[in-house]
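Write out this protein's structure.
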Amino acid sequence: MNNLLLIDDRKDFIEAFTADCTAKGYALYSERSLAGLKKLMPNLHHKIACVILDIKCLHTDDQEIEDPSFITSAITYLDQNFAKFPRMILTGDDTEYDQIKRYYKDEDIFLKTTEDKDRLFTKIKYYIDNSDELRVRRQNPEAFEAFGTGLLADSKGTTLYQLFKAAEEGILKQNNFNTLRELFEDVLLWANTRGLIPNSCIKPDGRPKSRMVL
């Protein structure tokens, strides 16, 4: 999934960024306003790896002056309609960069500078390389919640993703069910450390007595 979506009203930046993406083998969709974002996302969210937002943009294509409230509106729209979908914010102003870092501490924010471009594309590459796993995690948030909060090892989260993919493709095999059982045992062990399952349900080798718990 080598596709990206850029929302920016500056034609010169769109052209330069498109050239950068093409050189790296990425395809770029672009719009110049919040209205454009709302138009494309419903059709593209399953085809693109991430959204890149200019910090100051337009609400509608017929606006002539950039609106500083754009970024808040865009983030709200994405949170409400495409929760946890990968996004990044661009700004060409150091002051704006500091301000938005203060108010949006969890956002990926980059300056429109040559120096910051490498950092930006490193993050884009991560989203592209992991786009399918990130999609499955977004579609099944409850199943992956324990991994995101650190209750279970995140490496097991990748294992769970592989199980979801096998189920999607209709190729679940016996070894997949064995892996699922191992994940279930990890959950039982975590429950034992919290006092939710008694020690009598744990075997001498440290693994849970699954049948006793069930």
